[in-house]
Task: inverse folding
């Protein structure tokens, strides 16, 4: 039997913490701070409209780009909510989650050897997808600048092969949000060196203290921005697998070509759910955001009291405590905490360079469990001292 | 703003400690305590109650009924004077002025069907201004104050996901 598979795929390193994940799943009584999604169920009104669409017999393909009404609802929402300006007929593709969006955009953009600037720590899908698309990852460690993008450092990494920069703000795993002034500096570089900015804005609705600024609304940036977002986080719709890519027609038409052949179209039921979400769910989104905010305030301050130095995140539902003063590596810490106190967290290095010495905790879980987890962490730390 | 945040949290969890509450709203314990005391003093917060699933309590569950009343309002006080009278009965647990065919909607509670029947026929219906009543006995409670009693929602999330 032949044993030669795609060398590009084989070069993607296997997930080093698979063993840890298996251990979490097989341990009973675990309090998990390792989840990557909301603890809210999809608002019932959204589910109901999806069910109704099935009852009416909407079970077919839609156009490749996405159902007309769905595309328009998304571009209208982006306009009203964030001031983004996209045309529903040629500047959007509805995708199967944001991950598909990242994939098709990178494949539409990259030629072998093209470089993508990737501030890290960041979400796990970008680097493998860049490699699969034939590009080269240029990681930029943001640890020294408090997980905020240092523009001077960014400039130092730009070469003639730089094709794009990927921004993930609010960030998974740190929860940091890049402020407008910083985005403007990035924009100046994008203009100066002529690169694209792929802006993953899936957590845009979960920003606590300030209004969110979409990179595409920075002056002159629409033409070189690809905006990625979706329904998973804002509307608690992870399982519906629905996202979208917006950008200039030049790149969208190419991304659509890939989408048309590998996906055909996003599931129609999810598209109907999305239309409902955008029309009727503002108050639920607000309620969820408030609830995350209370839990963030509580959890992050308590973590600091416990002795784990943790920056207050501005958005998403994660925080990224430093465990460097415990003397353990991130993975050792995660393993020991799981074994001794049955609390699951995600080791920081999973999220790329700069993640060592940190763990990711998701605080989108109920307050009583958060309190219990904090008690267990405190007991764990005392034992180690 | 801070007051609204505190009220919203207390509405869902009246047993939360002042300390935890202070952490959640990013304020000091003293400030949160002062706000709660002020709300109580000004009777914006009247009482802290508990939502009970009667069916799970071994003690015999109380009987409840929703009663609609048609009432003749009084010249000077409108519906308020008669409402105040009705509110005084211990059997009446909720009381609202409503629009539509009826004027009042009240919820009454008693130990038995007879107790409620007697209350309606001997007390409520006899009140001078009450013209008409419609009594509906409650058979089962599904949801109270936004809480679903038999909620089969359970954790479906994977324990670790990036």
Result:
């Amino acid at each position: 039997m032949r044993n030669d598979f795609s060398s590009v795929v084989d070069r993607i390193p296997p997930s080093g913490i698979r063993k840890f994940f298996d251990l979490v799943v097989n341990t009973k009584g675990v309090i998990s701070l390792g989840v990557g999604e909301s603890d809210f169920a999809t608002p019932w009104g959204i589910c109901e409209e999806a069910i109704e669409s099935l009852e009416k017999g909407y079970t077919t393909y839609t156009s490749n780009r996405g159902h007309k009404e769905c595309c328009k609802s998304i571009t209208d929402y982006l306009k009203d909510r964030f001031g983004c300006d996209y045309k529903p007929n040629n500047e959007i593709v509805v995708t199967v989650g944001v991950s598909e969006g990242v994939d098709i955009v990178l494949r539409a953009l990259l030629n072998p050897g093209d470089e993508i600037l990737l501030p890290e720590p960041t979400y796990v899908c970008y680097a493998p997808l860049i490699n699969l698309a034939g590009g080269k990852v240029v990681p930029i460690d943001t640890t020294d600048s408090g997980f905020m993008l240092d523009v001077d450092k960014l400039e130092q990494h730009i070469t003639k092969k730089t094709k794009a920069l990927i921004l993930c703000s609010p960030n998974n795993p740190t929860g940091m949000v890049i402020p407008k002034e910083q985005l403007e500096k990035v924009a100046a570089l994008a203009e100066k060196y002529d690169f694209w900015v792929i802006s993953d804005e899936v957590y845009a609705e979960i920003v606590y203290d300030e209004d969110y600024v979409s990179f595409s609304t920075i002056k002159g940036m629409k033409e070189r921005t690809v905006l990625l977002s979706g329904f998973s986080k804002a509307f608690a719709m992870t399982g519906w697998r629905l996202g979208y890519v917006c950008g200039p027609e030049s790149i969208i038409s190419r991304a659509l070509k890939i989408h048309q052949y590998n996906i055909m179209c996003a599931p129609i039921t999810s598209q109907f759910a999305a239309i409902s979400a955008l029309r009727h769910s503002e108050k639920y989104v607000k309620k969820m955001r408030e609830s995350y905010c209370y839990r963030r305030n509580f959890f992050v301050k308590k973590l600091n009291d416990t002795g784990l130095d943790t920056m207050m995140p501005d958005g998403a539902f994660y925080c990224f405590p430093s465990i460097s003063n415990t003397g353990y590596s991130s993975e050792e810490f995660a393993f020991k905490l799981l074994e001794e106190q049955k609390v699951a967290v995600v080791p920081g290095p999973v999220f790329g360079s700069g993640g060592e010495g940190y763990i990711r905790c998701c605080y989108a879980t109920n307050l009583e469990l958060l309190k219990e987890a904090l008690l267990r962490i405190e007991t764990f730390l005392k034992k180690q001292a | 703003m801070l007051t609204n945040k505190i009220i919203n949290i207390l509405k869902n969890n009246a047993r939360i400690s002042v300390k935890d509450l202070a952490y959640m709203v990013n304020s000091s314990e003293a400030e949160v305590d002062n706000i709660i005391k002020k709300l109580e003093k000004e009777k914006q917060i009247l009482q802290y109650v508990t939502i009970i699933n009667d069916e799970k309590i071994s003690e015999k569950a109380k009987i409840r009924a929703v009663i609609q009343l048609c009432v003749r309002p009084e010249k000077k006080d409108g519906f308020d004077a008669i409402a105040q009278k009705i509110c005084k009965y211990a059997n009446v647990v909720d009381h609202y002025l409503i629009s539509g065919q009826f004027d009042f909607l009240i919820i009454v509670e008693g130990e038995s069907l007879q107790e409620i029947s007697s209350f309606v026929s001997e007390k409520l219906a006899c009140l001078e201004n009450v013209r008409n009543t419609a009594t509906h006995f409650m058979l089962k409670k599904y949801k109270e104050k936004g809480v679903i009693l038999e909620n089969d929602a359970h954790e479906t999330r994977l324990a670790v996901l990036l």
The longest helix of chain A spans residues 282-306.
